Amino acid sequence: MTRRRKRTTQRRLNCRKATSLIAAYLAGELDPLQTVAFENHLRDCADCLAFLNTYKKTIELAQAFLKHSTAAPKPYRPRCPVDIEAGR
Ligand SMILES: [Zn+2]
Question: Which of 36, 47, 67, 85 lies 20 to 30 A from 57 at CA?
Answer without folding.
Answer: 36
